[in-house]
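Q: Convert this sequence to structure tokens.
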Amino acid sequence: MGIKIKDAQVVLPEKGRDVIGTHSIYIEGENIVGIDTAPDGFKEDTVIDGKDRLVIPGLINAHTHTYMSMMRNCADDLSFTDWLFNTISPIEDKLTPEDAYWGSMLGQLEMIQSGTTTFNDQQMHIHQTTQAVIDSGMRAVIGRGLVGGEYDKNDFRLKEAFEEMKDGEKCDRLSFFLNPHAPYSCGPDYLRMVADIAKENHFGIHIHLAEGQTESDNMLKDHNCTPTEYVRDAGVFEVPTIAAHGIRLSDSDMDILKAHNVSIVTNPASNAKLGNGVAPVPKMFEKGINVCLGTDGAASNNGQNMFREMAIEALIHKAVNNTPQCVGAREVFRMATINGAKALQLGDVTGSIEVGKKADLAILRLDVPSMMPNNNLIAALTYSANGSEVDTVIINGQIVMEKREVKTIDSERVYFEIRKMCDRLGLSGRNY
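A:
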């Protein structure tokens, strides 16, 4: 099917910057095949009028747990340890695989409606998130969460991770990383095993790192090192790694991350809500670290909306550093697009609008109050947009949402299943 997006405002990469101009985009099959000029033989089956529209590369949520979407607003205003061990973990213990499927579908529905086309997910029920991705039309990097202490290649979670990877044979929008959960939940021998297996099989690694002060204090007390040093010494950074949070990082930690080309995905809403702090993103920029952006799960963020995340990311650093110049709208937009693609080893696939890349696009309305007047549209994406402006979403060349209607997900069925699940888990009607 040939799709032409005619005469829209389009965000294009130009010499390391994002530049907006009026362009037409030609899509054939899964790919962008032309910008302004159609290739020979191109047939327009669908034409999208670009008047009062802005086309951006689909946003990339570089760290989340979509199965947790039913847990939004059920564990609020708690300390990190109380939130995790006394509230969220007991709920997780009650979840069925079917619950995880519908939780992921709810998260993906929210992401599509707010312009996200790719997400990086750590989950615990194999096959459920991957099946949800197959059904929704999204692009995703998936990993079964891994926890353990010993070097044990018979570990059941590791076996499940490899079993889940068979789902990738059904869908070229799926790819997989190994996902050791965190330094505080994985022993050094276990991390070494995961790193060895990742190296043998050419996998990336996705891990939580330096998320809170308690983690850092315990690591210093028990191992006489920082969480970053602990993970490095276990060999994790010998393979491409994306580390979530990166809040408690020293200068030497950041030097380690840069030396090993580790990408950090910051989660400002979740980090702030749990009182864990603010990641030193301006310093990471100075060090040349690739920093990308994610929401984390809805249990700690309460949303999966990357526009909200972009705004918080830009604003929180201005407040903490007492300067409006430290993290700007242009940097944040790249964090939410091409930086995330690079971190997930998808830089040649998505993250920017270029001929040859997959057609992963979000089309926003410009004729709405939040985007008027149409002045600096890059700034508007971070400071003005809220996600409701997203009108149409194309993923892998397929129109998955048109005029705010998601075509690949039965939203009413999702809501029905979520309500039923929350009633069963005792999550409905919490008013405390």
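The chain has two domains: 2-57+357-404, 59-343.
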